[in-house]
Amino acid sequence: MSQNDVEFIGMIQGQKVSEIHAAKGPAIDRDYVRAFAQAHENAGFDRVLVPHHSTSPDATLTVAYAASVTERIHFMLAHRPGFVAPTLAARQFASLDQFSGGRLGVHYISGGSDEEQKRDGDWLDHDQRYARTDEYLEVLHKVWTSEKPFDHEGAHYRFQNAFSEVKPVQTRNGKPHVPVYFGGASEAAIPVAGKYADVYALWGESLDQARELTTRVRAEAAKHGRSVRFSVSFRPILAQTEDAAWARAENILAETKRLRVVQGYNRGGPQQSEGAKRLLAAAEKGSRLDKRLWTAVAQEIGGRSNSTALVGTPEQVADALLDYYDLGVTTFLIRGFDPLEDATDYGRELIPRTRELVAQRLQSQRKAA
Questions:
Q1: Given Cys at both, which of 124, 167, 177, 260 links 265, Cβ 3.0 to 4.6 Å?
Q2: Nearest partner of 232 among 108, 316, 333, 106, judged by Cα
Q3: Which residues pair with 168 in a beta bridge?
Q4: pTM
Q5: What is the DSSP string of 179-207?
Q6: Are 90 and 144 in contact (CB under 8 A)?
Q7: How far apart are CA 217 and CA 329, in angstroms?
């Protein structure tokens, strides 16, 4: 896609679960995953994220299954560097890109929680994890692009005669490449983003916060002669009237609180995640920011995960998304509190209305040029 095209990403999981839906039954419901992936494809999404958690089903295998029951939609595999050798990960991603027909992207998550990382045996601290990711991505690119075996010796990895017979279907600048999605707002993260990210992902921050962070990432990328696309994540809450949308938002907040009490969760905090701290900083300024950014759920769950919403009619939310587009954001990750049903609903009006607004904006810019 070009720098000006708009991309919509959804999210699928192994079973029905969200802040207002407690998980029930086995962790993998194949029928639900199939219906969920196909619902996104039918709704006009470009790509779906398969998330990663230290207790969740394997995201790589989930993508492989979802790709087998869809035809067009692309995927964003959430992957934590450090648990699989980068040489093996490079071959896995290249293989999955081949089997899916060039539909893979990978979102590299260095990790914002020491506790979460330790579940899988990782004892590096926050900044060390980003340093490891830097080297990890360096090795991945070498494996994808090298035409002959190579040696590598770094702070975290050492390989001799590393090579892969399989290369990705997709290319960048004429060389095999799987698109790199990357997140992280800390001082340790931004330099890595500048070197490697094709798409830099923010959580649903305020416009001022998004402007500040995208400016920093652009400046870092420019040091390497690169440009970066940007993604922002929201949980749109839609209804046919604005009042009905806000009423639905309040019901979602009430159910989130009720379910957390039932499950014995406390609010907690952002742990080591700078992105979560930024969401809480926004929430401290009020539960309603800008045109229709709603932070109440993010505050309730301690800023963990993309948990801020845009609330209103499809027209109003599309208009709010355009404000981020005007900041240079061309990718929107949108997922609902009613996951499958909301994905279908977004496809009815929100996605096509946003695409229409972007097309109108581009047409106006071409006429003015």
A1: 260
A2: 333
A3: none
A4: 0.95
A5: -EEEE--STTTHHHHHHH-SEEEE-S--H
A6: yes
A7: 12
Torsion angles phi and psi, residue 332, rounded to 5: -125, 120
Helices 314-325, 207-222: crossing angle, 10 deg rounding: 30
Q: Which two tokens stand for residue 285?
A: 């300024």
10 Å Cβ neighbour count for 207? 17
Query: How many C-alpha atoms does 166 have within 13 Å on its Cβ side?
Result: 16
- Residue 57's nearest CA partner among 25, 88, 21, 82 is 25
Say which residues have a Cβ less than 8 Å from residue 308's Cβ, sequence separation at least 6: 203, 204, 205, 234, 235, 279, 282, 293, 294, 295, 297, 298
Which residue bears the tokens 């001022």? 208
Report DSSP letters for 260-301, one per residue: HHHHT------TT-HHHHHHHHHHHT-SEETTTEE-HHHHHT
Give residue-wise pLDDT tens across range 195-250.
999 999 999 999 999 999 999 999 999 999 999 999 999 999 999 999 999 999 99
Residue 342 neighbours by CB distance under 10 Å:
22
C-alpha distance from residue 186 to each of 232, 278, 281 (Å): 17, 10, 14
pLDDT tens by residue, 157-194? 999 999 999 999 999 999 999 999 999 999 999 999 99
